[in-house]
From TrEMBL:
Highest taxon in the source lineage: Eukaryota
Localization: Golgi apparatus membrane
Glycosyltransferase family 18 catalytic domain boundaries: 30-546
Record-listed E.C. numbers: 2.4.1.155
Membrane disposition: Single-pass type II membrane protein
Biological pathway: Protein modification; protein glycosylation
Stated name of the protein: alpha-1,6-mannosyl-glycoprotein 6-beta-N-acetylglucosaminyltransferase
């Protein structure tokens, strides 16, 4: 079969992506899982049917359009909200009253799930029942429940047609939550009004968008231009799954617990069997991990929940008991029985480890040395972040830690064995970090909806005004790290307090304000959109606005 790379202005990076995969298709087993073999035809099928960078090839079967009522993704969201409704209601009743005694007005809110709309949505929907990623759906479910409990009026859109219907009367919504795909839909639907109303947007962005990637002109000039980013929004309009950087807003989600929040801990509910459940629903994630799992299997019975198409022989190790792809309810039941939840190194930074720990499991995961980033990892390449990922789940490694989270060298059998032996001697109660409880998310969202205002010139800082501590970091460290080393948090809203002296050089640079010891110069920031806690460079010492942590 002969395939030619199409030239379609609606898919401007198709040819570039084809060239990338011709050179790199063997760099990740995920590509082989989707039958990429290096040929132009296999690459075009992948880039049109799995990703959304090329148009669908003529003559190929298209995925049937799924109506919202039968959509697996919408069913998952509805099921999660219904299953957790009692916890949400209980948490809503337990919220602290507003200190200032003011009642937040009811807002009209649009939730447009761009990842479920159009061609991208058809491919996303098809993957939900085959072990595809569910983390984004978890966030959408919890966001919709949260806003409902807070008393706001929601409109839910999962198609371009619904979106256009919503805009028959141009922008009647006070807030619009969407994702990167949805931003493109909104721009087409709204025309010239898009720029005027973009201050109302909130972008669900799992891995975050750092300021250097957000400003199109700066990103293009300084090598930060990617397929994502360049929208010129306020960095806090991007809402992340984990607190990656204070430049963005941490939205989060809720870790499901086996007992209601109001109940006492009952050990008999959490009676654990001597089993480990492996985190990885598709076979390609298991490739090359047999030795790692074999060490664990010497002490624990290994269970998997891997999607396996009928007729295809399994490539899983023989000691694995595979349950196949489970419903969320059955998967949670399996985790309630398990002592250990085992990470394979991928998927990165999903919600499952938090939920496993909330169900009384300990999480065992691989350490990355050197750290994974856009420079050495295909998954992060092109994402608008410079973060260095030191393990599969850096949030759990850094903010939860032992005895709940154990990070090991996956290639060191002794390290793995010692960790498993320590785990088996350790007893833990179910643990959910406060920020991942229903109450924690409700309090956080109430403050965002009440205080975050990106329309006009508002640069309000949270009340009460925090105590600023300015720290000059060492060369090559970001302000996130500088503040964290002093048990503080970087707050980008506080940069303006010391970005003022007339004697300092003013430039557009995402590392400013900072000090360059070679030129003995202090540089100030001229572009407020580039105030960044995340940036670092070996020739600059960052001047950082630090404050104490907020609960």
């Amino acid at each position: 079969e002969k395939c030619e790379v199409p030239t379609d202005p609606a898919y401007p990076v198709c040819a570039e992506k084809v060239e990338f995969l011709r050179a790199r298709w063997q760099s990740d087993p995920c590509y082989a899982f989707y039958r990429v073999d290096g040929s132009t035809c296999s690459i075009l099928v992948y880039l049109s049917q799995v990703e959304d960078f090329c148009p669908t090839q003529p003559g190929r079967n298209h995925t049937a359009v799924i109506s919202s009522s039968s959509s697996p993704a919408v069913k998952f969201i509805r099921s999660r909200v219904e299953r957790m409704s009692e916890s949400w209601i209980w948490a809503g009743r337990g919220m602290k009253p507003n200190r200032n005694k003011t009642v937040s007005p009811q807002m009209k809110v649009l939730l447009h799930l761009g990842a479920l709309a159009g061609d991208v949505g058809q491919r996303f929907e098809a993957m939900v029942d085959r072990g595809g990623p569910l983390g984004e759906l978890v966030q959408w479910a919890d966001l919709s429940a949260c806003l409902t409990i807070l008393g706001h009026n929601l409109t839910f859109s999962t198609s371009k047609r619904q979106l256009h219907r919503s805009h028959s009367r141009p922008l009647t919504f006070d807030l619009i939550y969407t994702d990167y795909h949805g931003l493109a839909h909104l721009r087409r639907a709204m025309g010239l009004a898009f720029q005027h109303y973009q201050c109302r947007f909130r972008i669900l962005d799992s891995f975050g968008t750092e300021p250097a990637f957000n400003l199109a002109s700066y990103a293009h000039l300084h090598g930060y231009k990617t397929l994502w980013g360049s929208w010129g929004l306020q960095p806090l309009q991007y809402m992340t799954m984990f607190p990656h950087t204070p430049d963005n807003s941490f939205l989060g989600f809720v870790g499901e617990d086996a007992v209601k929040t109001s109940d006492e801990f009952k050990p008999e509910i959490y009676k654990k069997d001597n089993i480990a459940v492996v985190y990885g629903k598709q076979e390609y994630m298991w490739q090359g991990k047999s030795d790692y799992l074999e060490v664990i299997s010497q002490e624990l019975e290994i269970h998997g929940t891997v999607y396996q198409p009928s007729g295809r022989a399994s490539s899983l190790p023989g000691f694995v008991k595979n349950h196949g792809l489970l419903s969320q309810e059955n998967f949670l039941q399996l985790l309630r029985r398990a002592k250990v939840f085992v990470g394979l190194g991928f998927p990165y930074e999903g919600p499952a480890p938090v939920e496993a720990v909330a169900l009384g499991c300990m999480f065992l995961q691989p350490r990355f040395d050197p750290p994974h980033s856009s420079h050495n990892d295909v998954f992060y390449k092109g994402k608008p972040t410079t973060r260095q990922i030191t393990s599969q789940h850096p949030y759990s490694e850094r903010f939860v830690g032992k005895p709940f989270v154990w990070t090991v060298d996956m290639n060191n059998r002794t390290d793995i064995r010692e960790a498993v032996e320590s785990i088996l001697k350790t007893k833990v109660k179910p643990f959910t970090p406060p920020e991942f409880t229903c109450l924690g998310m409700l309090e956080r969202m109430r403050r965002y909806v009440t205080h975050q205002n990106f329309c006009g010139n508002s640069t309000a800082v949270w009340e009460p005004e925090p105590v600023l501590r300015v720290l000059l970091g060492p060369l090559g460290q970001s302000c996130v790290d500088v503040c964290q080393r002093s048990a503080l948090t970087c707050d980008p809203a506080l940069f303006h307090r010391f970005n003022t002296p007339d004697t300092m050089v003013q430039e557009v640079n995402h590392l400013f304000p900072s000090y360059s010891p070679w030129g003995r110069l202090c540089g100030l920031q001229q572009e407020p959109l580039l105030f960044s806690c995340a940036g670092s460079d070996s020739s600059h010492r960052r001047l950082c606005p630090c404050r104490s942590h907020r609960e």
